[in-house]
Write a structure and sequence with these properties.
homodimer; about 300 residues; alpha/beta; Arc Repressor Mutant, subunit A; D-Maltodextrin-Binding Protein, domain 2; 3 domains; two-stranded antiparallel sheet; DNA-binding
DNA sequence: TTCACACATCGAAAATACCGAATGATTACA
DNA sequence: TGTAATCATTCGGTATTTTCGATGTGTGAA
């Protein structure tokens, strides 16, 4: 019969290996040295290997001890984080840390998160935006609860995450009011020799649009690839070029960036994803967000022809 | 006086939350239900919060319990990995898991690792190659001990790693024997209108060479960007184009790929890095590798002019 | 050598982990 | 509806472990 290992012993071992000696650790733990000495001996006996080697009147880690300490470091770092974040106040229960890929239109994000905030008045929301890759690693180490992104989670890093589609929209092309009006007439041929601002070079949207342009035999000069969708729209607002944005948020785009829809890029969609850590499949917020997204989908994801637009 | 928390209690809590009930956990732990029940009550008392809520005759996790379980999952996953890898045989002590960025010339890697293997006959070496980004995340979760790469660790993911330069070399351009001989004469002007194969688009080497070509007013057609350095060289061997490789390994390149050095790209260097987890600064292998790299540096990192080459 | 220091060992105490028996409450099923 | 099975818990007693004081041993410094 093999007994379970005693994690308190392992904790003592960790304290000693950090303090450098049993004597120092005993002070930190409010115990006497002989107690700790005995406990560690028991752990060594259970493991069948020495953790420490006596060097002079000092204890030094054995090879095995050194390896074990690395695991202990990780383990008890988590334990301390657990106690720090959950002892005392209860805000951690009501704080939702959401990562937002900077390629996402902010008005869409608002649309997704607003109902959640409104439904439960004492939720604290923390938003962090950045590139999907950065945010994914944050998600993996529990610094984030959710991640909203325009690209599905690639598991090239072997992180355990779930990816749910929460929205889909056709892409429209926008330009300043008078400019858009000119281009609407002969869309999409009118785009020829126009200037254009696109999202990041590696984004699926950017690639899809470039493919579409090629397919339509349109020759446009792409003046810039911009990772941040807000910045891209700001460029467009300044008249630097035509820019794409989801049809789904055309009203927002029109009013806040003073532009008009020229037309719709046929057969090009942008999808949006909610990425959650594997463990959290039954999380309250995520499920609510998914439900809401699914509801919205049926009513709002309607393709629009350029003729129905106005400004 | 606040007592330390009892990690064995936490372990019982984890077992119960996994098993779904105290009854099932008690079987797995070879204990009676009342024991576990009492221990968990003690833990709850110590924490000042309920972990479970009675729902019928079942226990369900409270909000606080759910959060705590996530920490427990992480903690004891590490603990189990610790026991799995260190119990039983002692090979873990002698197994060095090295990640190798696929952009690295394999002959350089061999050169670095060979002396280590030879010096200690019972070392087991495990090599894993892939993109630096993938390997970095592996390093962070202890799946790798070291990482050899041609790009320094960018800490855009907030992983705790150390980065040491272990080598540096000028870049040379290579082509098939007869082709190289033709081009040597008027190098670098002779490169005009030649075809070229380069490493990955985002690699510093690739960028540096493209910049250099521009600077020299050379117009070459880049037929391909290849992430894997071996594949790039294979392309070059097939005569698809001129390709770059470190001067440091010119002899290897010449013999194994049946090509000759055309000339050296002035002022373009490639550096090589050893990336280690923060915890492992005093690791035996790493220090030895660093020492050896430093020794090699003084003798081997000599720039070579194209005139001194032969084939 | 002597002293101070650090860890280990021993034996007794206090603390606690554990179990058997019994209770109450819930669910499954006849 | 009633009965049996299941599950968590409470209580009291026992076994084990944890802890400490006293003591021993080896080390390094004065």
């Amino acid at each position: 019969m093999i007994t379970n290992i005693n994690y308190n012993h392992f904790y003592y071992f960790w304290m000693v290996s950090n303090a450098g000696s049993i004597a120092k650790a005993s002070k930190a733990l409010h115990l006497t040295p002989q107690t700790i000495s005995a406990q560690i001996s028991m752990l060594e006996q259970r493991l069948g290997k020495q953790l420490f080697i006596r060097k002079g009147r000092q204890l030094v880690l054995s090879d095995y001890g050194r390896v074990s300490k690395q695991y202990a470091d990780d383990m008890f770092a988590i334990a301390e984080e657990w106690l720090e974040t959950t002892q005392g106040n209860d805000t951690y229960l009501k704080t939702l840390k959401v990562g937002i890929s900077d390629a996402l239109p902010k008005s869409l994000v608002t649309r997704w998160l607003a109902p959640i905030i409104n439904s439960d008045s004492n939720i604290k929301l923390t938003c962090i935006d950045g590139k999907q890759e950065e945010l994914l690693s944050q998600l993996a180490i529990h610094k984030l609860d959710l991640l909203l992104s325009d690209t599905p989670a690639d598991n090239s890093y072997n992180l355990k995450v779930f990816c749910h589609e929460i929205g889909k929209s056709n892409i429209g092309l926008y330009a300043r009011h008078h400019h858009a009006r000119e281009l609407q007439a002969d869309f999409p041929q009118s785009l020829n020799n126009q200037r254009m601002v696109l999202p990041g070079k590696d984004s699926p949207t950017s690639r899809a649009i470039e493919y579409w342009l090629n397919e339509q035999h349109l020759n446009v000069s792409i003046v810039s690839h911009v990772d941040d969708s807000a910045l891209m729209k700001a460029f467009g607002k300044q008249g630097l070029g035509i820019f794409p944005a989801p049809i789904l948020i055309r009203d927002d785009v029109k009013t806040s960036h003073e532009v008009s829809l020229i037309g719709q890029v046929s057969n090009v969609y942008q999808s949006y994803y909610l990425i959650t850590p594997e463990r959290m499949v039954s999380d309250t917020f995520s499920t609510r967000l998914l439900e809401q997204a699914r509801m919205g989908e049926s009513t709002e994801n309607s393709a629009v022809s350029p003729s129905t637009t106005d400004d």
